[in-house]
Amino acid sequence: MSETKKSAGVAPAFAGRHEPRPLPFDPSKLRGLSERLIRSHWENNYCGAVKALNVVEQRLAAMLDDPVLPPYVYGDLKREELLRTGSVGLHELYFANLGGDGEADDAIHRVLSRAFGTFSTWEAEFRRTANALAGGSGWAVLALGPEGDLHNYWAWDHTSGAPGSRPLLVLDMYEHAYHLDYGAAAARYVDAFMQNVDWEEVSRRLADATASVGTRYETWDQTSTPG
Amino acid sequence: MSETKKSAGVAPAFAGRHEPRPLPFDPSKLRGLSERLIRSHWENNYCGAVKALNVVEQRLAAMLDDPVLPPYVYGDLKREELLRTGSVGLHELYFANLGGDGEADDAIHRVLSRAFGTFSTWEAEFRRTANALAGGSGWAVLALGPEGDLHNYWAWDHTSGAPGSRPLLVLDMYEHAYHLDYGAAAARYVDAFMQNVDWEEVSRRLADATASVGTRYETWDQTSTPG
Amino acid sequence: MSETKKSAGVAPAFAGRHEPRPLPFDPSKLRGLSERLIRSHWENNYCGAVKALNVVEQRLAAMLDDPVLPPYVYGDLKREELLRTGSVGLHELYFANLGGDGEADDAIHRVLSRAFGTFSTWEAEFRRTANALAGGSGWAVLALGPEGDLHNYWAWDHTSGAPGSRPLLVLDMYEHAYHLDYGAAAARYVDAFMQNVDWEEVSRRLADATASVGTRYETWDQTSTPG
Amino acid sequence: MSETKKSAGVAPAFAGRHEPRPLPFDPSKLRGLSERLIRSHWENNYCGAVKALNVVEQRLAAMLDDPVLPPYVYGDLKREELLRTGSVGLHELYFANLGGDGEADDAIHRVLSRAFGTFSTWEAEFRRTANALAGGSGWAVLALGPEGDLHNYWAWDHTSGAPGSRPLLVLDMYEHAYHLDYGAAAARYVDAFMQNVDWEEVSRRLADATASVGTRYETWDQTSTPG
């Protein structure tokens, strides 16, 4: 089959072949987050999103063949694609930054102090951003922007994100992330989350992201460090 | 001043010192997009967003010092921060991918054919995603995801984006991007935009993004290329 | 004090004096919805929204006095006002349409059959709209529009609604409405909700709303009823 | 044909038979808003929304027959239904409250003074809410809430609205409402809009809405009027 004859249906963009990743930690071992909660979250919300994304990609391919389809109807499904892509990606980042001891090392402390003034300012802002989403839905995300800048982002749902930014630490504030264990006490869930952060994973992400941001970040890094 | 005493107000995350970037092309030379439109877009919408982002970052720092502030009020300004961050970043990407001749080279054709089946399937989907936003607001974005996957994303406003994805080609569908020239005829604006795409910039972004995605992308690249 | 000297702070629009309404039924008596869930929902989510709305209204009054405040910062708090207004109003409608036996009378059957083809078509669409929001947040709302038309509306969050429409039956699909009892099994929660609908309240709302829609509704009512 | 056999396709909720209403004023006679702008707005944005709503209602009926359709795909089209319903309804309210001389009578002054402290406080807040949406999309809406309360609401797009509220004065802040005449100078468009408000229409809506709110409003009306 020639390159140009491949139908959209089997092209990677529309293949719908995403597979869930297993939990990267033992869900019975987290502090303050029950195995029941984590398993339900992984199975229903994360795996559900993977399944839905596959369905959506394949439906998009079928819709592309319909020449009279109004663009806005296509757009409705493109919104669902973005929503599910965000849900899959953010859940993978979330589970992968859990399972640690909650202790950030010196290098992380230095980087976050440089960006936010002090480490505790960073932590206060990250928690406040998370708590701002209590009772609703969304994510709090520490991310490295394309200029090497670090920010905590407020994300209202799975479709939200800063363009070109690289998520380093991701906290799910959808109620399915905590209600089974904490009911409406979202701030106590945030406490529990912080005690289970795998900061080594965050460091790995920061190293990857910094490498890709490149020279600009290094420059910024030096000029903004007073003696 | 000790590291920990630096106030949030002068920390980079709250510094509010973003500067607008000049237009990277001569705005009198685009085909089908008037100098008046481009200058208004750059000055009012883009520079306005830079200014607003600076204000918001500094207000966040001031708010952080208020211990009784309800988190949701802080969250309201965090939303504005994300909105302005998205507007600044996407506008910079948009202007930087204009000013070209609209002709994608063979390498781009190959990459997009591989991901979408054919180049024209890619283009049809990109245009349909853009046209789905006609009469409202948003962006159509071709982006490389963290797994090396390529997708056209539908973004409803400046806050939308797929987590960890790298924008390669960005098309502004806010009405301020075309009404002065085309009124409600959004599809004609999309035609004009496509004739001015700077595909060399897209290639540079793809090279940068691919480098950072690394091995996984290369692997995918090979396995999904039938002989 | 003269009319024009009254400060915005004590004017009704900015007074911040909303009071929670008590539950209009015995929360230990619902079928399939636990007292613990209902009490947490009422106290934390509904009463929390009332409290927040009061804070927001008073903050708006204070902000109005600041002549250099950028409009978009004011807008951020106006969004929170709409969000909380929606949450308060929808929760009041929700609790008030619970506590019944789930049996719609003949008049309701006739009205919904006329609008949707059959009562079961209405119910299927209402449930599907609700289930579309599973795992996230939002509301399913049966409402009478300003032309006397009946529709089930999909609402993504508390800010969503059709202009001028009158909600008749309101179903909360935020995860706080069911996770404590059903975890991720949203469809089972929808089943439970339907068994507790107070259709007499729905009839009262319909009568009120129809009266206000007036002649146009009556006309439509007759012309669209085939013999 | 029996009541229960009517297919969803011809039921009013899915009929897709909305017809555009003509402009209720002479578009060549507004002050500061060009005939070209108004005609484009009416024809492209409003009539386009009517057409789209008809398509969406009919597609919903067809989708209802598909028993294996995932609810979230149905929900995507329900979102489009709400979006188009909002666009149709708000545009009708907008055009119908234009064409006047911009002078509110004494009764309106009294009502708004009572609710906001002074008429000029009301106007300042309405304008600020509108200007908060400059450069993006949305609506500023003065509405009577179900308790007889008056508020200016900030609406981000056509899907936004306070539950059960009755819009009295509606200002379109989508860029298609002003860019042809004012470019990015949104505040000047708001000035022009205010000079063309048909306050008699607003009074009629207030009378209708007050009648339907009924006794609660009268009570509030009296107790909140200081001597």
Please render the helix and strand layout as text.
Four copies of one chain form a homotetramer.
Chain A: H1 35-64, H2 71-96, H3 106-116, H4 119-131, E1 139-144, E2 150-155, E3 166-172, H5 179-182, H6 186-195, H7 199-213, H8 215-223
Antiparallel strand pairs in A: 1-2, 1-3
Helix pairs in contact in A: 1-2, 3-4
Strand content of chain A: 5-15%
Number of strands of chain A: 3
- Per CATH, the class of one domain in chain A reads Alpha Beta
For this structure, the CATH topology of one domain in chain A is: minor pseudopilin epsh fold
Mean pLDDT of chain A: 91
Q: Just name the CATH architecture of one domain in chain A.
A: 3-Layer(bab) Sandwich
Poorly predicted parts of chain A: 1-6, 214-227
State the gist of this model:
The structure is a homotetramer of 227-residue chains. The first copy, chain A, has helices at 35-64, 71-96, 106-116, 119-131, 179-182, 186-195, 199-213, 215-223; strands spanning 139-144, 150-155, 166-172.
